[in-house]
Amino acid sequence: MPSQLPSLPNTITDPAIKAFIEKYYAVSNDPEVHDDYADLFTPGGEFSMNDKKAKGTQQIRDLRRAIWAHVPGRSHSPIQIYTHGDDETDLMILGDVSYSHHAGHETGADWAAKMKLEKQEGEVKVAYYHIIVVSSVLLFLSLMVGWEW
């Protein structure tokens, strides 16, 4: 499922970084390319989503396979991308995701992510990617019981 990227901030000037961000979300939304996804990270790269954590190519590949086993389709749509000052390798990304389920229904959630990129041998890679996914149901319930974020 393709996703449309938002306009990137003016602080991202490196064409390689711009192209990498586009590639990252295209690969991220493809259920068949676990190896390609893991290869987007540095060899010691870190990936986490809520309480799920992986470090290194093999763990990232294994976690991705496990995550995709639960849904036949998903589409991550970044809504806004920010840089930390002028550091175009230090990103904060806000977005939403829609999931198609084996039973035929669809659900969605909002997410925020911190992504740190590195260039290795001239190639852009993810060194660190941490995602927090919050379903609207969880957000609603937390507000009903008075949880503070």
UniProtKB/TrEMBL annotation:
UniProtKB keywords: Membrane, Transmembrane, Transmembrane helix
Keyword Protein biosynthesis assigned: no
Positions of transmembrane segments: 126-147
Domain of life: Eukaryota
The protein's name: SnoaL-like domain-containing protein
